[in-house]
Task: structure prediction
Amino acid sequence: MITVVRINVAPVKALGLAHPDEVELTEHGVAGNRRFFLRRAERLYNGKDCGPLVRVRPEAHDGRLSMTFPDGRELAGAVELGDAVVTNFWNHRDVHGRVVLGPWAGALSEYTGKDVQLIRVDDGQGAVDVHPGTVVSRASCERLGQELGADVDGRRFRMLFELDGAGAHEEDEWEGARIGDAVVRFLGPVARCAVTTQDPDTGVPTLDTLRGIRAYREQRDPKLIDFGVYFEIEQPGRVRVGDAVVPR
Result:
């Protein structure tokens, strides 16, 4: 049986992941996932710019936000919004949001050494790169690990759902699936970037994942290195760790 073995959500894009036991999958994805992101010079600022952002642990609930930094310092308070801004994502998408007022941007600027803003995405949106959902199987990570001679932690890929019980890259062949109470339709492969080379706890590059993937996987495009798949939500519903995944 194929099951959900880990859920990965990012209250703030590029910062540390949270791993809830269950989430509500809406037509727009998981509410609160990638609701916030960092902006610098009108462009997205993320893990490719500063890998150690993953060491900052965010929480966002009921209009409040907190961040715990590696030195133990914690900032917490109500989210207050300022000016509306438009941010360029990868030169192919403009994301609308509002500047978050308060101490977080200053603390993140000090931590990264760059002048960054914290942005909250407008209602009904998320700061996703392409589509609201992603999955990868543990077997796919194990296959990559065989190529690299190392353990490959699925958190490197920051996918919404990690699955167990499927074959390596079996998820690439599915048209859709029932995941817990939700029904999804798969939309094709996720092109990977250098963030996947970084350790998910430190943000420091430790594995050449891109070379490993390229070594054994057929490429659909010479410029793209695929790992995992996107999905959209056909029927919203609750998804829990341990829920069955029934492909179609």
About this structure: The chain has a mean pLDDT of 95. The CA atoms of residues 108 and 170 lie 39 Å apart.
